[in-house]
Design brief:
The chain is α/β, with parallel strands linked by helices. It is about 40% helix and about 15% strand. It is built from ten helices and eight strands.
Length: about 230
């Protein structure tokens, strides 16, 4: 099946439930992204800053770019002019840098707090208590150029559907508590970003509002090493 055919299948399945489909385009060439774009896809997710910057410069300007990978503070300035949503915010320090760079670009940047829900040591994210601590902090209250619109989580990489269901459900329950406690009057706090190719169906059942699907749409990834033109400073 072509990219357009794969995309049509996922869009009809996912969007019929009111869930946003993020086409994960990391390591995919411009031609493949354009094929998805011409098939109606507008939201694309990238893991690496340099790759997203390169692609944004070459592709249509009505694309919504989501940064879904781990973000270093020293790279925020490169995506601040255009990024639509940053999924993996896992510290107050990172949030402060996003706010600083958003202000420089006269923007408010939407963010999701990444919550650690997996039974693995390799995942990033805040603990439940750390999310509460962050949202109570005076430093957070001082930020004017970011907007927290929801939570993001990655389940354990396992075939145990019971465990995945439990982890996604735990995040949903936590989201509802945070909504009541901190965002009761903010309609914008509505997103739960969970679910990838292997577990998106479970994620949707457990309240996900956006799923991240890549290889199932684009086929096997083409590994391309993007030149790192972005310095570490």
């Amino acid at each position: 099946m072509s990219i357009a055919d794969n995309l049509k299948q996922y869009k009809s399945e996912v969007e019929s439930d009111g869930v946003k489909l993020i086409a994960v385009s990391k390591t995919q060439p411009i031609e493949s992204i354009l094929e998805a774009y011409h098939a109606g896809q507008r939201i694309f997710g990238e893991n690496h800053v340099q790759e997203m910057v390169d692609k944004e410069a070459q592709l249509p300007k009505d694309i919504e770019w989501h940064l879904i990978g781990h973000l270093q503070t020293n790279k925020v300035k490169y995506i601040a002019p255009f990024v639509k949503l940053i999924h993996g915010v896992d510290s107050l320090k990172l949030l402060q840098e996003i706010d600083k760079q958003a202000a420089k670009n006269k923007r408010v940047i939407d963010c999701l707090l990444q919550v650690y829900i997996a039974d693995e040591d390799t995942k990033f994210g805040l603990g439940f208590d750390e999310v509460v601590e962050l949202l109570r902090a005076d430093e957070y209250a001082a930020l004017k150029n970011i907007r927290i619109v929801g939570l993001m989580g990655i389940a354990t990489n396992t075939k145990n559907e019971k465990q995945i269901t439990f982890e996604f459900n735990e995040l949903k329950v936590f989201f509802e508590g945070i909504k009541v406690s901190f965002f009761r009057k903010e309609d914008s706090f509505k997103e739960i970003s969970t679910g990838m190719s292997a577990d998106y169906k479970i994620a949707i059942k457990e309240g996900s509002t956006m799923v991240r699907i890549g290889s199932s749409i684009f086929g096997k990834r083409i590994i391309k090493h993007f030149k790192n033109n972005i310095s570490a400073n």
